[in-house]
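Fresh eyes needed here. I'd like your take on this protein's tokenised backbone:
***
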Amino acid sequence: MKVVFVELGMGVDLHGQDLTVAAVRACRNAIERNSLPGWRMLCPNGDKSSMRVRVTLGVPELPSAGPLDVEKVKAVFPYGSVEVRVVHGGLVADSGVFLSDKGDRTQEILMVCAAVEAGVEEA
């Protein structure tokens, strides 16, 4: 893949300790303020489906958080073929409060970091 741009994002789940919520927010944070009007010129025949997206998520290890739903993360991206790689990273911090009505399983905040690379297949 020839990388055209890289965007970075951070997502947090303050209550509920859901890695998927934090990962989706990190990906949205990375891409939601971008406009790439020239993108179609880079894609063969202007076909946006030829876009390749490679996402690296820095995810904290927290057994009580449950699994990360990679398909929900992929659904954040409107175009192209999306590949998600999960690595150890992110952050777990104490929130100072446990709110059962917000779905808390623990008193922790989860933060996930995302690096989103977008490009096209090399010729």
Observations:
- The first helix runs from residue 19 to 31.
- The longest strand covers residues 108-120.
- The CA atoms of residues 2 and 123 lie 9 Å apart.
- The chain has one domain: 2-32+40-120.
